Amino acid sequence: MEKQNSQLVVSVTNRATLEQTWFNEVRTRKPQTFKTASAGIADPTDGGKRCDFCAWQMLTAEDAWGRVERPHAVTGSNLFKYGEPAHGLVLFKHHEPLAFTPEQLADFLSVSAGWFAAASAAHPDARHPFFIWNCGPRAGASQYHGHGQLMLTNVAVPAQALLTQQAALHAATHSGTSLYHDLVRAHAAVGLARVVRRGEDRCWLVAHLAPQKDMEVLLLGPGLTSPAFQASLHAVLRAMIDRLGVETFNCGALNVPLADDREVHFSAANGLAAADANSVDGVAHGNGGADGVANGGAAFEVLAGSGDDLGLPASGAGWRPMMARVVSRGKLASPASDFGCLEVVGHASIGHTDPFVLIRAIDEQLAAALGA
Predict the structure, then answer these.
(1) Are 359 and 207 contacting, i.e. CB atoms less than 8 angstroms apart?
(2) Is residue 146 part of a domain?
(3) Which of 180, 288, 331, 351 registers the highest number of CB atoms within 10 A of its CB?
């Protein structure tokens, strides 16, 4: 007992954002008196036969501007809103929430960007977009079918307001750099940062040293339709699901760029909103592919190293990338919540997975998916 009571506890605090995580490998073996018979996500819809989202044409609502649709994904209006003035849904057209190809995920993200552009055109005074993807009941999903939520609000959600405030304070006190620049450089210094790039299209990903929840990865890129961002997010999620056994996760994006309303047009033939997925986030991009090649273009490169080796902006001042955060939400077989007083009141977190284990899994997935 005395030997067991002597444990290595590591505390990591981000001094710029005050995010804090406590790591103790022994906690992964902590006994649980609460039991459950569930071994995974149970599909209550009989394989989609009783799924509202599989029948989205009949059982989901449209926004006033219609839908944004691509072959693998489509948007709708949220019938149970908490975002004002616009709150929508983005749906995969296939049923299984943990099974998605690069093409399916690219469409999911691209129609989301199109929805933000259409919502912004309809509500020009609303300037605060927020992308939400809850996968599984432990992550907050109310439906088995893979889907996300899209919000455009007059007031920023607190996380967005805090990030903007922290970035401004950091820039004011550290001349010539930015919060995002230094965040990548700090993680690169210990081997926890990568960049996926093709030409000028780049996405930086970081296995977070101070995760809000287990296995947090931060992705910093130009927007939802960036092929580098899409490929990076797919690799991160597949690494977590296929290599680390994640069955439930949250993915959210802050600093989502809003497009000019001229980049969204409406089809007179069917009344649906159509989006140019190559430019809806205000940046010109190509379409990604499963092999990392876009319509005959060059393959992606994946680089590691110090901050200088990762192709960061020469001066970080003024750099405001979109930042996505992905976290695991624990084990489905455990009925105990992964969100307790430490998180709710203390605003700290417990890290169960070593970030270096996480980055190795991501490296393996990037190599397999992109040949990098």
Answers:
(1) yes
(2) yes
(3) 288
pTM: 0.89
What angle do helix axes 227-238 and 355-370 make, rounded to 10 degrees?
120
**Strand runs labelled E in the chain:** 10-13, 20-23, 69-70, 73-77, 85-92, 128-135, 147-153, 193-198, 201-207, 217-221, 249-254, 264-266, 273-275, 301-303, 322-328, 349-351
More confident residue, 205 or 370: 205
177 close to 293: Cβ distance less than 8 angstroms: no
Range of the domain at 61: 43-370
Q: How far apart are CA 283 and CA 277, in angstroms?
A: 10
CATH of the domain at 111: 3.30.428.10
User: In total, how many domains does the chain have?
Assistant: 1
Rounded to the nearest angstrom, the gap between the alpha carbon of residue 30 and the centroid of all alpha carbons in its chain is: 29
Tokens for 359, please give them. Answer: 């980055």
Residue 311 domain-assigned (yes or no): yes
> How many Cα atoms are found within 13 Å in the side-chain-facing hemisphere of 362?
32
Helices (H), 123-261: 158-173, 179-188, 227-238
Assess if residue 354 is contained within a domain.
yes
Q: Does residue 48 belong to any structural domain of this protein?
A: yes
| 239 pLDDT above the threshold of 70 | yes
Q: Write the pLDDT tens digit of every residue in 80-94.
A: 999 899 999 999 999
Token reading at 175: 């001349």
What's the CA gap between 372 and 365, in Å, rounded? Answer: 9
Instruction: State how beta strands 147-153 and 273-275 pair.
Output: unpaired
Using the predicted structure, report yes or no on whether residue 21 has a pLDDT greater than 80.
yes
State the Rg of the chain over Cα.
20
11 in Cβ contact with 199 (< 8 Å):
no
pLDDT digit string (tens) for 136-191? 988 999 999 999 999 999 999 999 999 999 999 999 999 889 999 999 999 999 99
